[in-house]
Amino acid sequence: MSKETILEEIKGMSVLELNDLVKAIEEEFGVTAAAPVAAGGAVAAVEEEQSEFDVILTGAGASKINVIKIVREITGLGLKEAKDLVDNAPKAIKEKVSKEEAEATKAKLEEAGAAVEVK
C-alpha cells in the first residue's frame, strides 16, 4: 500500500470512523495524536519549561545597609550604583540566570532582610 492509497481511504471515512482509527493507532503504537490547537485551527506552540529566571529586588526591608552589601557582592556594582538599585526597587538584580543561581541569589538577599521575587 502506498501513502496515496491510505490517504484516499482516509478521505472517504466519516468522523466517527476517523476517531476509531486514531484510537486504534494510539493503542497499537503507544503514541498520542493530541496536539494543542489555537483559535483559527493553527497549531499552538508547546510551552517549554522555563530555563532562565530574573531575580527582582522588591524591597530592601529594615536592613538596607546589609542588602546593599549583598547587592554589591552579587552584582559587582560600586557602592553608589548598588545603593541606587536598592533605593529604586523593584529592580532586577540578575537577569536570565539558571534556576539554581536565581534561588541562591534570592536566599542571600532574603537572609540580609530584602524582599525578593524570582520570575
From TrEMBL:
Pfam families for this protein: Ribosomal_L12 (PF00542), Ribosomal_L12_N (PF16320)
Signal sequence segment: none
Chain ranges of the Large ribosomal subunit protein bL12 C-terminal domain: 53-119
Large ribosomal subunit protein bL12 oligomerization domain segment(s): 3-45
Superkingdom of the source species: Bacteria
GO cellular component: a single term: ribosome
Keywords: Coiled coil, Ribonucleoprotein, Ribosomal protein
Regions annotated as coiled coil: 92-119
Role noted for this protein: Forms part of the ribosomal stalk which helps the ribosome interact with GTP-bound translation factors. Is thus essential for accurate translation.
Similarity comment: Belongs to the bacterial ribosomal protein bL12 family.
Assembly notes: Homodimer. Part of the ribosomal stalk of the 50S ribosomal subunit. Forms a multimeric L10(L12)X complex, where L10 forms an elongated spine to which 2 to 4 L12 dimers bind in a sequential fashion. Binds GTP-bound translation factors.
Protein name: Large ribosomal subunit protein bL12
Species classification: Bacteria, Bacillati, Bacillota, Bacilli, Bacillales
Gene coding for it: rplL
